[in-house]
Structures are given as C-alpha cells and as structure tokens.
Amino acid sequence: MRCNLALWDRMIRFLIGILLVTYAVAGGPFWAWGGLFFLATSGWGLCPIYGLFKIQTLRERHQRRVP
Question: How far apart are CA 36 and CA 43, in angstroms?
C-alpha cells in the first residue's frame, strides 16, 4: 500500500482526532470515539476511504511505501 495523505492532511486529522477523543473521554456522545479513526489514519498516512474513492492529497514525488 502507498501513503495517500499529505503532511497537512495528517496534521488536521491528528488535531481532529485528539479533540474528538478528548470530548468522548469527557463524557461526550458515542460517535466522538470516531476520533480514533482520525488518529490511526494520521499515524499511518493511509486513509482507506480515500483509497476506496482513489483520492490522494500526497503528490506522486513524495509517496512512499507503507509496510
């Protein structure tokens, strides 16, 4: 698999993930645990939903293989 998330996309996902998980831990609704998805995809640099729709924010010259 190849990475499909640019650095700016990964940073935004990380921030959203932290905010949602913090909200869930503080007693927010169940859907706020979806922030774990954002944290995981920002860490891996790969979004399966982007892959499904053939979307990528990472330019070709910056791509690398994901182990």
Answer: 11
